[in-house]
Amino acid sequence: MANQENTMKTRSIATALLLTGLLSGMQAQAKPQHKPQCQDCGRVTAVAVHDKDGKGGAVGLIAGGVAGALLGNQVGSGHGRQLATVAGAAGGAYAGKKVEEKARATKEWTVHVKYDNGQQANFHFDHDPNMHKGDRVRKADGTLVRN
């Protein structure tokens, strides 16, 4: 009889241990696994390249004004010549400024990013960032780097 009681106690302890193990396994599975989200990570949605006008300075303005004045001075006589000279200088100055802006034009790359948290941002580069639509990226030190 004592042997039978020991066997029953052993079975009860084994059953309790087995149930404890199963319950702790179920609790471990019930906890959701949260992976920390990178707030500065995202994906490139588009890359656009466009020309960016340079700054027109005094050189274009003055050179254009002088050239315009010289051409205007060739037109008409008397007061008409004076008006043509002034108009030529004004038009030439404007044209000279625009020519200088175009001569100093550069290319600019704009990279559009959609972050993992749903926000969007644009980054501008004065050189080819070598990024393409679909690339994984992250914001670092105010610029964009590949992830």
Automatic annotation (TrEMBL):
Q: Which UniProt keywords apply?
A: Membrane, Signal
Instruction: Please indicate if the UniProt record lists Signal as a keyword.
Output: yes
Which InterPro entries did the record assign?
Bact_OM_lipoprot/Surf_antigen (IPR051407), Gly_zipper_2TM_dom (IPR008816)
Q: Does the keyword Protein biosynthesis apply?
A: no
Give all residue intervals belonging to the Glycine zipper 2TM domain.
Answer: 60-99
The record, for Pfam families, names: Rick_17kDa_Anti (PF05433)
Q: Where in the cell is it found?
A: Membrane
Instruction: Extract the signal peptide range.
Output: 1-30
Principal localization reads membrane
Concerning PANTHER family, the annotation shows: OUTER MEMBRANE LIPOPROTEIN, PTHR35603
Q: Indicate what this protein is called per its UniProt record.
A: Glycine zipper 2TM domain-containing protein
Q: Which organism is it from?
A: Duganella aceris
Organism phylogeny: Bacteria, Pseudomonadati, Pseudomonadota, Betaproteobacteria, Burkholderiales
